[in-house]
Amino acid sequence: MQQMIVLFTIMVLIGISANYAYSQEMSLATFQEIAQIIVDKRISQNVTASITLQSTSIQEIKIPSELEQRIRENGNISAVIITNEDECILGVHGESCIIINVKRNAADKNFPAIQNSTLKISNQFIDEINGIFDTKAKLHSTFIQPSDEANVSLQTSGIISGKGTISAVYTMPMEDTHSMYEKISSILIPKIIRNSGGFYDVAKNLSTDENAKMTFTIIPSENKSLLQLRLSTNYSGIASNIDKIKPLEFLKTDELYRSEYFSTGFYPLNSIIQVVILSTENTNFSDVNGNILQTQTIDNEEIPLDITKEGWIFDPKEGQIIQGKYIFGEKTIVSNQELEFSLGGKKLQTEKLEVDESIIVVIIITIVAIAAAMFYLKGYKK
């Protein structure tokens, strides 16, 4: 009997120790906040700055569970989009849109057949979507996406816009972005997240910009849906003259705080800043003010070896498409000055280390987290 008591005590102590150790490790939340800057020197010559709030939990981005389940289980819907983007689809001007993207039925050989199949699916959902978001969108057209140009340019997935995507387009009167973002975010984002500041506050302030636009997207998958609220603004025709990047200037803030929603644990990969440069010529990052993290290449992806440290991961560092991702580590705030870097100039000499087997699990978790965060960034381009 005494042996059994000792054994039970040891098991309890092991359990407590394991829980304590686990509590000190990196955690992953379903909610993510992402700041993105795209400097397009290749096509539009625009700089696009955006804040995305996303989750796979309908408790963190609130849509009715029945609607989410019906969209997901339908099997033919690749995305549902609510947006006030200018010309959301070719031929739409001065109106906001609800777009339901439907997979093309291989049996449909002409446009009337394609249209009928698409509307048969989309009409099952539009009234419920209108009711949830207090909109009155009416059918405008059925549109077949003509090419993959944007997706090829950014190596995107084509889920939102890509060759062969069939869009049922419903339009409604244009609403200014600030009031639309206030209304939609109050419907979707629970008070605990809205009151936690962070990237949400930056997006709310940015929504008053005259060029700001809002998009909410539902992307269903087999077991759950990715829910994304995006606020973006464009700076037209300035990309070609940019050789020094101050990311937060495009977000109209001097400092960027992480959401206090993550203050209960260590969630270093749930707040990410991404900068993408598209160029017609080879370019590179240089003169970086902040830290450059040591990385290890896993499955052709540069992965930080110490996620407790703040800094940049540049991957690729040079070429016609280059990208930088900033993680906060244990910090909760970053300044514009810390994020500043240049394009061109002396190439970066970043350090790569051999990976120890003891941290391989952390690296795998990191890959999964970054992949989840980048899904949206690689999945949408108007």
Strand content: 25-35%
Number of domains: 1
Q: Which structural class matches the secondary elements?
A: alpha+beta
Gross geometry: globular
Structural write-up:
The protein is of the alpha+beta class and 382 residues long. Helix content is 28%, strand content 31%. The protein has one domain (30-377). The protein has helices spanning 2-23, 65-74, 111-122, 126-133, 149-154, 177-188, 191-194, 199-206, 247-250, 336-339, 360-377; strands at 32-40, 47-55, 77-83, 95-102, 138-144, 166-173, 212-220, 225-235, 244-245, 255-257, 271-286, 295-298, 301-304, 311-314, 318-327, 333-335, 341-343. The radius of gyration is 23 Å and the shape is globular. The chain starts with a helix and ends in a 5-residue tail after the last helix. 38% of the residues are buried. Mean pLDDT is 82; it is low at 1-24, 150-159, 355-372 and 374-382.
Entry keywords:
single chain; 382 residues; alpha+beta; two-stranded antiparallel sheet; disordered N terminus; disordered C terminus
Task: Show the helix and strand layout.
Layout (H helix, E strand, L loop, with lengths): L1 H22 L8 E9 L6 E9 L9 H10 L2 E7 L11 E8 L8 H12 L3 H8 L4 E7 L4 H6 L11 E8 L3 H12 L2 H4 L4 H8 L5 E9 L4 E11 L8 E2 L1 H4 L4 E3 L13 E16 L8 E4 L2 E4 L6 E4 L3 E10 L5 E3 H4 L1 E3 L16 H18 L5
Parallel strand pairs: 1-11
Antiparallel strand pairs: 1-2, 2-8, 3-4, 3-7, 4-6, 5-6, 7-8, 9-17, 10-16, 11-15, 11-17, 12-13, 14-15
Summarize the structure.
This protein is of the alpha+beta class and 382 residues long. 28% of the residues lie in helices and 31% in strands.
